[in-house]
Amino acid sequence: MTQLPTPGATPAAPPPAEPLPTAAPVRPRWRETLGLLARNPTAAVSAVVLVLIVLVAVFDETLAPDGPNEQDPSLQLQPPSWAHPFGTDEFGRDVFSRVILGAATSLRVGFLSVAFALVVGTLIGLLAGFYGTWVDDVLMRLMDVLFAFPAVLLAIAIVAIRGAGPANAILAIGIVYVPIFARVTRASVLGVREEVYVRASRSVGASDWRLITRHVLPNAAPPIIVQTSVSLAFAVLAEAALSFLGLGPRRPDPSWGLMLADGRGFIEQAWWYAVFPGLAIVVTVLCFNLLGDGLRDVLDPRQRTLMAGSGR
Amino acid sequence: MTAPGEGAPDVLVSARGLEVHFPIRSGGALRRTTGALRAVDGVDLDVYRGETLGLVGESGCGKSTLGNALLRLVPPTGGTVTFDGLDVTGMGRRQLRELRRRAGMVFQDPFASLDPRRTVAQTVSEPLEVHGLHPGRQARVARVRELLELVGLDPAVAARYPHEFSGGQRQRVGIARALAGEPDFLVCDEAIASLDVSVQAQVLNLLRRLQRQLGLTLLFISHDLSAVRHVSDRIAVMYLGRVVEVGPAAAVAAAPQMPYTRALLSAVPLPHPELERSRQRIVLRGDVPSPSRVPSGCRFRTRCPDVFEPCPDVDPALQPVGSAPGHVAACHLHGVVGTPVDGSGSTPAASGPPGATASGVRGTG
């Protein structure tokens, strides 16, 4: 009885009185976001620099003039020169090459640990926020326990138990950041799950899984994206700290944190040994942070309207 | 509550003693339940197949909660709901999904009811995907075009996002989504309340056209009595979580049998200037009591101009009133029928003391 008529039999629908949006170009949200981001100079520059750093990390072996452990005993602790732009270390290794080769280590640890925290933390936050009640209580109290530990101390404890090495550094940093993602996600989900459009989807029969993946997560995503960017900065820093303490990658593998630690001993004779790896850390962390700030502005709906209004 | 004197009408949706109580919890770690907010508190209501039933009442009286509870979007805490003979309250996952296909909902705020990150096409085709209707991308796209045309939208807007539309257009999208599963039953929860007045009429007419064209059964929830009168076959009046009067739209509008309905109707402005000037408003005293502290007996007694002895002591049941068949009201003015407040006599309708003879049907002013 509710069989709809075929399109041909449909009586001509009354023409809508209001003008339909006509010429407005169909632009997906993410393109709009990129457009707004491009108009935020700080965030745009940060993004470009980060892309460059990632490219350097990917093509490190082609870009580095020397191998990571090519020693030249005649060139120990040489100041920066045309041959060695960042100088050499106590074994006569080219600091410039090692900074380039260390980028891969630092970024890999940073990206993988944040990816781990993002996946696990977001999942926990989604479940806790969406289902509430005892699921929320159990999961978030567990997160509180993790969160109560000072981050670096917890990482050191994990590495101490499982042994030093890049894989364990990734795991340690990842676990430390899980509660942060869980909290950010939960807070955002708590707001979104009460939205009418979530109830509307439920009213047409959508399953919990569909509600979570198609409606709740996409709408709860902006704070998570910002948190990811900020966490990447901290993760790079944490990797440097763990390496500095000898709990991350091992010598003689190049790593910014390790170089910083080794260069510290020569800071009076050869400033370049510690300064250039340190600079690499600063630039990377700063760019992630600034990009995070920019994303936060762009993804905030109120800011977004303001910016779009002033720009057009 | 079936209409006396008529052949048993074809009931599509039916509520019996339906209750939705929200627990009121104290703060603190223990979260003790300290009370209940009785949003829906013992509702008996039938919706006949193919009709438009208007549900009116002040804001906060539980209209929306009732509409949600009928579709189990809010879990009932007591009573039963049946849909086409099936017990809604006891449905399993599969049955519930089929119910969601056969019963749609149109929401009040068209700016909140569409996911801002999904295109119109994605929103409207969601029911198709969920229920596996019109399988295949091509078929779904065609069906979405058909639905958009049905609600008076240009199918070319399918790729647009909600923020590009006006309120009326968004509401049309919401209606298209609700119709995608070819439902039998549509709950319109204040579907026109947040629209401009000129657009309200358009959407109202659209709903009427769709109802006739598709043979829908409509539950039209609104606080706007004139809109309800315009679209409804029957009208149900709700007060403080309870349906207090039900009847044919013309009968309820012309000869309301319960003081609350009379007061509600007297608040509606008349379109005729002379009649409007002579319109007598019945202004109720006081505020609606809190649904967490419902008065004993008749819940309207604290504001009723005609309150008398049995009102605090007997919880009135719906009884046939007036001259129109199927017109019922819960009011002791028509004879004291209901459950004594004592609680000792649990369910059966107890006749009140014959001494209370104020049961003559009052005229309609």
From TrEMBL, chain A:
Membrane topology: Multi-pass membrane protein
Family: Belongs to the binding-protein-dependent transport system permease family.
Highest taxon listed in the record's lineage: Bacteria
Location, primary (coarse class): membrane
Assigned keywords, A-Z: Cell membrane, Membrane, Transmembrane, Transmembrane helix, Transport
Organism listed in the record: Geodermatophilus amargosae
Protein's name in the database: Peptide/nickel transport system permease protein
Region (Disordered), start-end ranges: 1-25
Subcellular location: Cell membrane
Any one Gene Ontology BP term: transmembrane transport
Cellular component annotations (GO), alphabetically ordered: plasma membrane
Bilayer-crossing regions: 37-59, 109-130, 142-161, 167-184, 224-250, 270-292
InterPro entries per the UniProt record, alphabetical: BP-dependent_transpt_permease (IPR050366), MetI-like (IPR000515), MetI-like_sf (IPR035906), OppC_N (IPR025966)
Residues covered by the ABC transmembrane type-1 domain: 103-292
Bias (Low complexity) ranges: 1-11
From TrEMBL, chain B:
UniProt-annotated stretches for the region Disordered: 342-365
InterPro entries tied to this protein: AAA+_ATPase (IPR003593), ABC_transp_ATP-bind (IPR050319), ABC_transporter-like_ATP-bd (IPR003439), ABC_transporter-like_CS (IPR017871), Oligopep_ABC_C (IPR013563), P-loop_NTPase (IPR027417)
Keywords recorded for this protein, A-Z: ATP-binding, Nucleotide-binding, Transport
Domain ABC transporter: 24-265
SMART domains, per the entry: AAA
Record-linked SUPFAM superfamilies: P-loop containing nucleoside triphosphate hydrolases
Regions of compositional bias (Low complexity) in chain numbering: 343-365
Example GO biological process: transmembrane transport
A matching Pfam family: ABC_tran
An example molecular function term from Gene Ontology annotations: ATP binding
Domain of life: Bacteria
Family statement drawn from the similarity comment of this UniProt entry: Belongs to the ABC transporter superfamily.
NCBIfam families xrefs: oligo_HPY (TIGR01727)
Protein name (Swiss-Prot/TrEMBL): Peptide/nickel transport system ATP-binding protein
